[in-house]
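Example for tutorial group B:
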């Protein structure tokens, strides 16, 4: 013990344990972690520093007893070939806690969970994304008279109905006309 401290040295210590029965105080010179295991919760957002990068992910010091790990699949949306494409040792990053195992002393983190969701922009006026079947049908009919008729029928089906009975009859009639023209064109 003499090689670390000498009598008369001024040191900083932290209390680890107090035993009232024996009248002893257990002290340590090691700084306690900034974040205790009991404070870590799934969904919590933390800021930390990248301390190590491996081929399977990056280790982030968030102030806990041990660094947490961001698996390569949680570094970013999409494919990441190497963690060094996203982070480097010394980078300050924000992470979200996705799993805590205090028995194994493991913290699973994610950077991908903090990314804003990508918004899908559709060409349709009411932001309805066409199905794969609709897209295939449009491609197949492209350049034919039926494509124009199909688009007209599609637009007509989008218009608000004024009368319940009359609107559905009109739609049914349009569908029957398209079907009959389709069958006539196939026979020819």
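The residue assignment follows.
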């Amino acid at each position: 013990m003499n090689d670390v401290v000498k009598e008369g040295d001024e040191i900083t210590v932290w209390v680890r344990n107090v035993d009232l029965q024996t009248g002893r105080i257990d002290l340590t010179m090691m700084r306690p972690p900034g974040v205790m295991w009991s404070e870590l919760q799934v969904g919590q957002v933390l800021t930390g520093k990248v301390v190590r990068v491996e081929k399977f992910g990056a280790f982030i010091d968030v102030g806990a007893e041990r660094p947490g790990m961001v698996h390569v699949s949680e570094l970013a949306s999409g494919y990441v070939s190497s963690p060094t494409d996203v982070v480097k040792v010394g980078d300050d990053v924000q992470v979200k806690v996705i799993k805590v195992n205090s028995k194994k002393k493991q913290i699973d983190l994610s950077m991908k969970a903090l990314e804003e969701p990508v918004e899908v922009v559709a060409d349709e006026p009411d932001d309805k994304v066409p199905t794969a079947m609709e897209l295939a049908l449009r491609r197949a009919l492209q350049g034919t008279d039926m494509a124009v008729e199909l688009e007209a029928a599609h637009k007509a089906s989008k218009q608000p109905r004024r009368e319940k009975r009359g609107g559905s009859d009109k739609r049914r009639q349009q569908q029957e006309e398209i079907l009959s023209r389709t069958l006539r064109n196939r026979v020819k």
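The chain has three helices and seven strands. Compare this with the pattern of hydrophobic and polar residues in the output above.
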